[in-house]
Structures are given as structure tokens and as C-alpha cells.
Write a structure and sequence with these properties.
The chain is built from 1 helix and 27 strands. The chain is mainly beta. Pfam families: TonB_dep_Rec_b-barrel.
Length: about 400
């Protein structure tokens, strides 16, 4: 819920999610074994000013609490994450064929992590990060654009780091636009990778953050009326200290996260289509081809070469809409507990929504219509046919 008059606004968001999943990992009876996960989110945000004003302020505070209890392997994890950030937008060039702006950001995040299992206990592990960032944006009325950004992060656990990115777009003609970007990024290990959470997944305190450099270049092709578009993009990045996993005990198949030696190379092609067929019928489709290899030229585990999605949305009336989507994940290789070729799978999802009033929307989603049995990680089955019913509101 919140308030927004275009010049100032405030928003309060609260959500809670609970999920229980049964599992069967061994030959013996595990009828009482299950994992229950819960996540609660509170977020308060607000702004003062508009994009047409010289100055615009934004501030947000959030608190996330997540816990996972596993019966059978007797393990519990508890994570609390608090975040506060402030952003200042300076729109110093607001009139004429060119618009320019600068954004300054300050961010603070603190994470508390506790884990208890039959094998180990991790009490009150903490990670805090303080960041400052800046971004410059340029836009020309002929659809040319440029943005340059940088971010400095002070971490309590890992080395301080600087990351940056530059991106640009050029309108070549009415139906063609060229775009590209290049940047440097840092990805810190997850708390479970660094500290572990059970005897089957052991922490690695020697883990280092992933460091990557890379970019993309693409061509956007649009119809004259902008109802149809096709975006072709080539991407490539080199990653050092890529975080993977390895089995450290051939008897229990316990594993841990590790940094790969040398440079991991990831490259591929993305093709994305968006279309408006009528005023009430729209559709999309996309395909991604990815090649990911480590320093020895061996393909990375759990990385499908082929992925694709497609969907349509039909607005039956002003209030009632329906949608259908299809997603495909290609074959890949898993290494836990042994090398295994994972089969491809295709999922079909259906949905409908109804606008009850100006502030409230009801929806129903039927996911995995065919009740397909599949795994993203060997040994961890995903949900079969599932129905979600809910309400979305804004006030």
C-alpha cells in the first residue's frame, strides 16, 4: 500500500511465503522427511520530486528473514538481511533534443547467518557491505543513448572492489537500432557457499569472489508501427575465480564450493521477439545459446546450451485476461554425486487474471500443466502440476 501524486510518494510492502517439500534421497524409508522454507519481507520506500524536476530523492529500507528447516537430515538455517539505500537524481538537462542526468547512490546492507545441523553449527555469522555508486545518462531525441556507471563496495569479509559499466545505443534508421555494453563485475560467494549449511554441503572459508569482464553487442529490428521487434545479441565474458562445486567424500558424497583455476569463458547468442498482433493479443518468444567452458576447455556443469521461452497474452475484456507460456531447457551435465547427463524438459503454464476494482486484481496460475517430472540439480525433483490463486493490490 502507499501514496503517490506524481511529485511525492510512499510505499509499504509486506509479504510472507511458506513452502513444504517432501524428499527421498536414499533407499531407506524417508516418509517423514521434508523441508520447510519461510520468507518474510518488509519494505518501506519513498520519493520526492519527479523526472521533470532538477532534483529527485529516493530512499528505501527493507528487512528480509528467511529460514529453512529440514526434517530427516536435521538441519536449520536462519538468514536475516537488512538494507537501506538513498538515491539522488540530478536532471540537469531537461529541455531540448538532448536530456542528461546524474544519479548518486549510497547503500548499506548487513546479513546475519545461523546454521545448525547434525554435523556442524554456525552461530551469528555476519557480513556487511557499504557501497557508493554514480551513473551518468545521456539521451537524444533521435533515440541515441549513453550511460556510464561505477560502484565502489567496502566489504567486511571480502576485498573492497570497484565495478563499472558503459552502455550505448544508436538509432541507425527507422527500423534498426544498434546497442552494446561493456563492464566489470564482482560476485561474492553466497553465505551457504562460504559457511556451509549441513554435512552434505560443507563451507569453504577460502572462497574468493568471482571477477568478470565482458559485454554484448546487438541489433534491434522493429516494424515501422513498432508492433513487432526482433533483437539479436551476442554476449561474451571472461570469469576468474568462477565458483563451482566438487565432491570431497566419495562415501557420503559431501561437496563444497570451490574457485576454478584460470579463466572461465562464457559466450553465446540471444534472440528475442515481441509482437502485438491485435489490440488484445500480444506474444513473445526468445532463445539463448550458451557455451561455457573452464580453463581446460571442459563445459561447465548444470549449464544448458539451449534455452527457449514463448508465450501469448489475450485480453478478453477490459477486466479479464488470459495467458499461456512454454519454456524449454536443454540437456546438460551434472557432477553430483557423479557425472550424469541430464535430459531436456519442456514446461507449459496457463494463467488468468481479473481486475476486481481499481486497486485489486485476482489471479490463478496453473504451472507445469503436463505434470512433467524434471530436475535442475541431480537428485532434487521440482514441482509437478501446481495451482496458485491469489490477490494483488495497491492502495
Amino acid at each position: 500500500m502507499g501514496y503517490d501524486d506524481g511529485l511525492k510518494g510512499i510505499e509499504l510492502l509486506a509479504s510472507h511465503h511458506t513452502q513444504t517439500a517432501a524428499f527421498d534421497n536414499y533407499i531407506g524409508d524417508e516418509s517423514g522427511h521434508n523441508t520447510r522454507s519461510r520468507e518474510t519481507l518488509f519494505r518501506l520506500g519513498g520519493y520526492l520530486g519527479s523526472d521533470q524536476d532538477l532534483i529527485k530523492h529516493k530512499i528505501a529500507l527493507s528487512h528480509v528473514k528467511a529460514d529453512i528447516d529440514t526434517r530427516g537430515s536435521v538441519s536449520t538455517t536462519d538468514t536475516k538481511r537488512r538494507n537501506v539505500n538513498y538515491q539522488l537524481d540530478v536532471n540537469f538537462d531537461r529541455e531540448g533534443p538532448v536530456t542528461q542526468a546524474v544519479s548518486l547512490l549510497a547503500d548499506y546492507q548487513k546479513t546475519h547467518y545461523d546454521a545448525v545441523s547434525s554435523w556442524a553449527t554456525f552461530d551469528n555469522k555476519q557480513l556487511s557491505e557499504k557501497s557508493v555508486a554514480a551513473e551518468y545518462r545521456y539521451f537524444h531525441e533521435n533515440d541515441h543513448s549513453l550511460s556510464v556507471s561505477g560502484r565502489y563496495t567496502d566489504s567486511s569479509q571480502f576485498d573492497n572492489s570497484f565495478t563499472g559499466r558503459i552502455s550505448a545505443g544508436i538509432r541507425l534508421a527507422q527500423n534498426f537500432r544498434l546497442h552494446g555494453s561493456y563492464g566489470k563485475a564482482i560476485q561474492n560467494p553466497a553465505t551457504t557457499e562460504f559457511y556451509g549449511w549441513s554435512g552434505s554441503f560443507v563451507g569453504n572459508p577460502n572462497l574468493k569472489p568471482e571477477k568478470s569482464r565482458g559485454g554484448d553487442v546487438g541489433l534491434l529490428i522493429e516494424s515501422t508501427n513498432k508492433h513487432h521487434s526482433l533483437d539479436l545479441t551476442y554476449f561474451a565474458r571472461n570469469v576468474t575465480d568462477y565458483i563451482d562445486s566438487e565432491v570431497i567424500d566419495s562415501t557420503t558424497y559431501a561437496s563444497r564450493a570451490i574457485n576454478l583455476d584460470g579463466t572461465t569463458k562464457i559466450k553465446g547468442v540471444e534472440i528475442a521477439y515481441n509482437g502485438k498482433f491485435t489490440d488484445s493479443l500480444t506474444g513473445f518468444a526468445n532463445y539463448t545459446y550458451t557455451r561455457a567452458k573452464n580453463n581446460f576447455g571442459v563445459e561447465l556443469y548444470r549449464r544448458p546450451k539451449h534455452q527457449a521461452n514463448a508465450g501469448i497474452h489475450f485480453q478478453v475484456t477490459d477486466k479479464f485476461g488470459t495467458q499461456a507460456s512454454l519454456s524449454y531447457v536443454g540437456k546438460r551435465i551434472d557432477n553430483y554425486p557423479y557425472l550424469t547427463k541430464m535430459p531436456s524438459y519442456t514446461l507449459v503454464n496457463l494463467g488468468a487474471d481479473y481486475q476486481l476494482n481499481a486497486n485489486l486484481n485476482a489471479y490463478v496460475n496453473l504451472n507445469n500443466v503436463a505434470n512433467k517430472k524434471y530436475e535442475n540439480i541431480l537428485g532434487y525433483g521440482q514441482y509437478g502440476r501446481t495451482v496458485y490463486v491469489g490477490l494483488k493490490g495497491h492502495f
